[in-house]
Write a structure and sequence with these properties.
Radius of gyration: 30 Å
Helix content: 55-70%
Number of strands: 0
Shape: rod-shaped
Oligomer: single chain
Number of helices: 4
Strand content: under 5%
Mean pLDDT: 79
Structural class: mainly alpha
Largest sheet: none
Length: about 120
């Protein structure tokens, strides 16, 4: 069975690679020794921000487990039909009349919608 890395494992691996690159890059640059610790402290946040920007451009940001709500077209006639059906099958306090179900309300609303 193939083991695919989780997002956390991938993030940890990328962070470790970025830390390694920052450390070797700082060590190899001709900076004065006084500035090297400051640069090595700031560089990981710069790398992380850069990674976030690249991910944003590629469209891989966000939580993949939560689906985005679908955009639906509005049907004003169905909206009007639902209001009429609810008025017929509900009491003034909003409770369903006796014998009425949500299925009956929707069936009646679709019937009204077809007639419009």
């Amino acid at each position: 069975m193939i083991h695919l890395p989780t997002d956390a494992e991938r993030a940890a691996a990328l962070r470790a690679a970025a830390d390694y690159l920052v450390q070797t890059g700082v060590a190899m640059t001709p900076l004065p020794p006084v500035l090297k610790p400051a640069v090595s402290q700031v560089a990981p946040t710069v790398v992380e921000n850069l990674a976030l920007e690249v991910a944003k451009i590629l469209g891989s940001t966000g939580n993949p487990t939560v689906p985005k709500p679908r955009k639906k077209r509005k049907d004003p006639k169905m909206s009007k039909a639902l209001k009429q059906a609810n008025n017929r099958y509900r009491k003034k306090n909003g409770a369903l009349r006796s014998g009425a179900t949500q299925a009956k309300i929707m069936s009646y609303a679709h019937k009204l919608r077809r007639k419009m």
